[in-house]
Design brief:
With about 375 residues, the chain is mostly helical. It contains 15 helices and two strands. Helix 2 runs antiparallel to helix 10, helix 4 packs antiparallel against helix 15 and helix 6 packs parallel to helix 10. The mean pLDDT is about 85. It comes from Paenibacillus hemerocallicola.
Length: about 375
């Protein structure tokens, strides 16, 4: 179905884009509502989900080489339960792709194109992403390698420019209410880190599988550091007000003024962020399309690209009536919904696969004896 190959470094960039593109603009406020001044500690705990998913993806690829999770879940769980799990994955990624597209539209319209209909913004974006997805995994790999590098540089530059306005006292007292608020604050970032479930789709298409686990772990570490930096920057700038802002980092960018010369750079920030969001949407879109094609037993996913693109556009409108409802959903029940599908199910599949392998070895040794 997918003849293209990507390097482990390109996979790391693609996986990096999935949690970071929306995470850096939305997560600081969501995390601050639970963890308050300890919001910068929550991504460190949440990153454990990403590390475990990379390890699970690597081990499952060793057990079932050149097969994606949609294909080997039938071998692990049986035909009917495997098909049922496949349907759950497909439904989830269709739903999630609609959410990601809606987040993108809300951010662009709410901050820059206030009078433009959201459907116009999201419609053009879906068409561009559909063309990229139809071109295949290699094109997505090259796009991520170029665009995500710019996004990383942007985060570092913006952080440096914001240093004069930061107040270190906003960090203290550290863990004033103990560890529980930090753990509660980690629930939503865990959902973002569970996007590393995509590694179960990407590992079979690596050209250098021996480096896959290393670059996957580096990608998780890079996401964790990015979230810590953005959360800490928002906290040092706004303190307790961070939880009340929809997009703390965008508000921060608008405050940048260096010697009366470097200011009003939000347009530059938006243009580079859009490139990162483009890769993020493409990756969710790609997994939804390929997963659907594999579940249906099709030989090619390309005939589904544009029909499912229309469905995702419709879903992005139906997801929630407004940004407040969407943010509330993402900050509460969605974390458990996403973790159950993208973390607990792969973990159970991995454990069952290990048990099957051990039973197979014991039967083989018993028959030989």
């Amino acid at each position: 179905m997918e003849l293209g190959k990507v390097s482990s470094f390109q996979m790391a960039m693609m996986l990096y884009s999935m949690p970071v593109a929306t995470g850096i603009v939305i997560l600081p406020a969501i995390t601050a509502r639970q963890a308050e001044q300890d919001l910068w500690l929550s991504p460190i705990i949440a990153s454990l989900v990403g590390y475990m998913l990379i390890y699970i993806a690597y081990r499952l690829d060793k057990l079932y080489p050149n097969k994606t999770v949609m294909e080997y879940c039938i071998e692990v769980a049986g035909r009917i339960p495997g098909k049922a799990l496949g349907f759950v994955f497909v439904f989830f990624y269709l739903h999630l792709s609609g959410i990601v597209i809606r987040q993108y539209g809300e951010f662009i319209v709410g901050n820059f194109f206030l009078k433009t209909p959201m459907i116009a913004i999201t419609g053009v974006t879906v068409i561009a992403c559909a063309i990229a997805v139809r071109c295949g995994l290699e094109v997505l790999g090259r796009c991520s390698q170029s665009f995500i590098t710019l996004l990383i540089v942007l985060v570092l530059i913006v952080t440096v420019l914001l240093l004069p306005g930061m107040n270190p006292e906003n960090v203290f007292p550290v863990m004033e209410r103990g560890f529980v608020p930090v753990l509660k604050g980690a629930a939503s970032p865990m959902d973002w880190f569970s996007s590393y479930f995509a590694a179960l789709f990407l590992f079979p298409f690596l050209s250098d599988k021996s480096k896959g686990m290393k670059w996957g772990m580096i990608s998780v570490c890079a996401v964790m550091l990015t979230m810590v930096i953005t959360n800490l920057a928002a906290l040092l700038l706004f303190g307790e007000l961070t939880a009340d802002l929809s997009y703390p980092m965008m508000v921060a960018v608008r405050q940048i003024s260096l010697a009366g010369f470097i200011e009003h750079i939000e347009a530059v920030v938006m243009s580079i962020w859009i490139l990162g969001a483009f890769v993020q949407i493409c990756m969710h879109y790609y997994i939804a399309v390929v997963g659907t094609a594999q579940w249906l037993g099709m030989k090619s996913y390309k005939p589904l690209v544009f029909p499912l693109g229309f469905l995702l556009l419709v879903l992005s409108v139906w997801i929630a009536p407004d940004l407040q409802v969407l943010s509330g959903f993402l900050g509460t029940s969605f974390a458990f919904y996403a973790l159950a599908i993208r973390f607990m199910i792969p973990l159970l599949l991995f454990l069952v696969a290990l048990l099957r392998k051990k039973r197979g070895k014991s039967r083989a040794s018993g028959s030989n004896g």
